[in-house]
Amino acid sequence: MIxxxxxxxxxxxxxxxxxxxxxxxxxxxxxxxxxISAQLLQVFSVGEAGNILRQLxxxxxxxxxxxxxxxxxxxxxxxxxxxxxxxxxxxxxLIQTAAIVVQYKxxx
Length: 108
Known about the structure:
It contains 4 helices and no strands. The protein is mainly α. The chain has one domain (23-103). Helix 2 (19-40) packs across helix 3 and helix 3 (48-78) runs antiparallel to helix 4.
């Protein structure tokens, strides 16, 4: 329990000290999501089902790609499956989703 408390304090201090870097990283995640969504407009129809499918693929693409980076590095080093792939994908997905929700503007 103490280990988790110390970890969250240290991570919080690192975020506070590197706030500008964290903002750039979050902006990159949102920009990459928007770019993928714009590229998928050429593939999917403009209807409601097409919009939902396009947004779903755009939301899932970035975490999967970012999660594959440590998998490839781990596989090249150890020739085995990276054991924490889904945890990495979930963390990136939660961060990306939070950034997108914070920047969301409802259309009237």
